[in-house]
Amino acid sequence: MRILEATKIYKSYGNKFNKQEVLKGIDISVAEGEFVSIMGASGSGKTTLLNVLSSIDQVSHGTIHIDGKEMTGMKEKQLAEFRKNHLGFIFQEYNLLDTLTVKENILLPLSITKVSKKEADQKFKEVAIELGIYDLKDKYPNEISGGQKQRTSAARSFIHQPSIIFADEPTGALDSKSASDLLNKLSELNQKRRATIMMVTHDPVAAGYCSRVIFIKDGQIYTQLNKGEETRQAFFNDIMKTQAVLGGVQNEH
Amino acid sequence: MSINHLILRNLKKNLKNYYLYVFALIFSVSLYFAFVTLQYDPSMNEAKGSVKGAAAIKTAAILLIAIVSIFLLYANQLFMKRRSKEIGLFQLIGMTKGGIFRLLSAENFILYFSSLLIGIFIGFSSSKLMMMILFKFMGLETSTTLQFSEEAFIQTLIVFCAIYLLIMLMNYLFIKRQTILSLFRVISSTENKVRKISVFEIVFGAMGIVLILTGYYISSKLFDGDFTTMSELFIAMSFILGSVIIGTYLFYKGSVTFITNIIRKKKGGYLNINEVLSLSSIMFRMKSNALLLTIITTVSALAIGLLSLCYISYFSAEKSAEKNVPSHFSLTTTEDAEQFKAALKAEDIAYREKRINVIQVNANVAEIMDTKLKELNFDPNNMTLPVISDQSVKDLNLSKDETLFTGYNDIVEKIMSLKGSGQIELKGQRESISQKYKGLEKEFILPYNFTHGGLPVVIVDETTFRHLKNDINPKIQLESSLYIGIDIKDKGKIEEANNIFQDMTISKHPTNLSRLEMSNNQKQVMGLTMFIVGFLGLTFLVTSGCILYFKQMDESEDEKPNYTVLRKLGFTQGDLLKGIQAKQLFNFGIPLVIGLVHSYFAVKSGWFLFGTELWTPMIVVMIIYTSLYSIFGLLSVLYYKKVIKEAL
């Protein structure tokens, strides 16, 4: 089943006279339970793509369906409603609220959807234990490490069981140990809960944990790699090779 | 881009952000200018009556300057912190500190002095209005003219230039002390970080509430007779002041955190959006602003309290004049009375006359005295009281050994209250008469010059009165033993009669009184005080409202990332705004409510010293204050709305 279906998305900034096209006709489809990563050099448009897909930004042309619902053309209120029920987010800068404890931060998405307190507690317990942060529940974000913060952020994105989770450079601010911890947890949750995750990264190691990697260059899809039955190491090597071809400035002009 | 261009750009941007600062500046300049204009206006001193209008306004102007300069310096400090990044950037691209200082000075100069000129202009055009308000308050009818006073202009310029220099000095020191790095870091270091609630905070929080409540409790007992000497009273008052102010500080420092924490604990981590935005943020922020909030609360309580008291006094001017002068006019000699009556007849004004013989007698009232107050300058065994016969009072017949007291001033009564019954002794020159005291009546019969300013009048039987009169002690008698009260039959003609009275030489005699004149005098004094306290209070309200608003502006910028997160999570702008409204309700509401409650208890404890009506004046003042104050809360919500909209 297709969770996300985007066809011919264009996104441009600026006005009529000074237009900059960032996305030039991208088609993406993501199936349920997939762990997809988007890679590309700085300025290739990967963050814009993520923003557009996650309804934070509007497309110039094209259509996006998530869970069979067309998102393009929705009003601000409908979009908020949609994000609240169908989407989860993990950001590079954690984006936890400083004034709330770990538990309060994680329960935030549930407070919008009017889940009973008991059920919320139950859900919190499950996800927090899975991510290994249950003991931290009464701590404030500035009392815990970056890795723990990012796991809190991940727990927040999983707790309301969204259709798809968008992660923007989730390992960007972490050391390698915390990063691999987080990625392990993410892929565990991906398999256990059949959660669909779409992750933007430029770390090939992080991309190695995914089942599919989409490479973007100058606003267009350059190529895709499927992990298939390969080992993670072999897949990582493939990614490195592709990145080497992709990277660098072309001197042909 | 040249420096001038940069200055203009900054100005434009700042004007948008700090329109409220400009408004407050213009407001205070115009108020100051108007005050100074009044001070130099010749008609102020022509204003009849004993009120020294100009001197009072001069004092007010000085206070005004104190409030305004503190506000301007504080606001400037806030702005400098906000702009520290920009200053760091200028330094980074190679501008010298002197250069930056010149840039800021020029920018400030334009903003400040254009507001100053606008303020002076507004002050000039509104000074006539102010004067009309003042005269209206004072009940005077003097024609006012619009005059531009050069002295006022120069004084205003000098004072505000001095403040400008002070601000510049502060900026200079600020820039000089900073390195590029610390300038970048300044914002993060000023806001204190989220911490766990410590035991100290819980103790402080509880203590704050206890201190405030103790202060309130003692204030309600202040005049109940528990404090019997002046020094005890004084200690009690100082204690109330101290415990309430310290309590307020601790309340902001600990109690708010403490209470919100309890509420949060109850929620077990499951907060809804309103709680996320209001509770969690207030919990940590109020603490860091504790001192500021304490000052704002205390001064607003003071302003509300003073204003209420003045208004109470103004409101009950007529009633208290009635107590002091029971008839419309009160005279003490037959000649003066004849003269006045002739004048009234000439104008065809009908009147009623009342004559009462009054003698002063020393009385021993120790037995009926219900007070422990020791340090009064009288001896209850030998108190000089006015005595009249029961025949002078309508519908009253006492037996030979009975005595009735009447017309006891509220203030005096609070200090030395009387029992319901007992024995007293009236001392003549040679012998004393023992009398049975029957109680205290409310009615006022004699004007204050016969009653030593508010002591009760002793009514005795006619025979006893005659007896006492024959055995009189000449040393303690007043100049006159005759009270002549004249009441005008037609109430509409009292004013006319008063004008006649004032034009006659008999009005110069201090024992010849006019009730209307007295009430007008009180209205004048209280009107002037009310005018001054009112405008000072208004200035304080505007400046403290601005400071709270600026604080909220800062806070909203700090919390912008949070709004981004929340909106990404699927909260709509409307959801967030609702939470913000709740938050602002607390942010502005808590200081306001505490200020109001403080002033309520302050007024409640001593209002009877000022007048006869408590509720109407106090509630009017409080409602006006609250509604003006709420405007700033609303403005801050609007600002938040903008920030939330931009957050995604």
From TrEMBL, chain A:
Leader sequence segment: none
Keyword Nucleotide-binding: yes
InterPro entries reported for this sequence: AAA+_ATPase, ABC_transporter-like_ATP-bd, MacB-like_ATP-bd, P-loop_NTPase
PANTHER family: ALPHA-D-RIBOSE 1-METHYLPHOSPHONATE 5-TRIPHOSPHATE SYNTHASE SUBUNIT PHNL, LIPOPROTEIN-RELEASING SYSTEM ATP-BINDING PROTEIN LOLD
SUPFAM superfamilies assigned to the protein according to its UniProt record, in alphabetical order: P-loop containing nucleoside triphosphate hydrolases (SSF52540)
Molecular function terms from GO: ATP binding
Domain ABC transporter as annotated: residue spans: 4-243
Protein's recorded name: ABC transporter ATP-binding protein
Gene3D superfamilies, per the entry: P-loop containing nucleotide triphosphate hydrolases
Superkingdom to which the source organism belongs: Bacteria
Keywords: ATP-binding, Nucleotide-binding, Transport
Family as reported in the entry's similarity comment: Belongs to the ABC transporter superfamily.
Automatic annotation (TrEMBL), chain B:
Regions annotated as coiled coil: none
Pfam families: FtsX
Annotated TM spans: 18-35, 55-75, 109-133, 153-175, 196-218, 233-252, 290-314, 525-550, 585-603, 615-640
Predominant location category: membrane
Presence of keyword Transmembrane helix: yes
Domain ABC3 transporter permease C-terminal: 60-178
Record's bilayer topology term: Multi-pass membrane protein
Keyword set, alphabetical order: Cell membrane, Membrane, Transmembrane, Transmembrane helix, Transport
InterPro entries, per database record: ABC-4_Integral_Memb_Prot (IPR052536), ABC3_permease_C (IPR003838), ABC_permease_BceB-typ (IPR027022)
Protein location: Cell membrane
Family indicated by similarity: Belongs to the ABC-4 integral membrane protein family.
Protein name per UniProt: ABC transporter permease
Upper classification of the organism: Bacteria, Bacillati, Bacillota, Bacilli, Bacillales
